[in-house]
Specification:
mainly alpha; about 120 residues
Length: about 120
Amino acid sequence: MVEFFKEGGWSMWLILVVGATLVGASLRFAIKPHAAKKEFLKYLSFATIAASIHGMLMDVGMVFWYCTDDQRCPDAELTRTLLQGFKESTRPGTFGGGLLVIALVLMAIGASRLA
């Protein structure tokens, strides 16, 4: 998991903070649902999605930047470097998506208890 986190880059920290806040708030909503919290959870979910997409786009941009220099990335290694870079670029989306799924399940539990 540490390597997975490192591969995602610095945006993983933002996703961790926003996503952990979302999961915590969703858990609280599942335990003690209150209709007024739904709006907060909705926008925190959007923030998690935005942070994940932003992290992925930044990582893809860094891959392109890295591969534009022949010194860093010779033509013989271009394909492997691009594939490795794109693999690592999926880390923020995978991490943020996982946190979002956990939060949405907890929100569903809270919503069913609210009704």
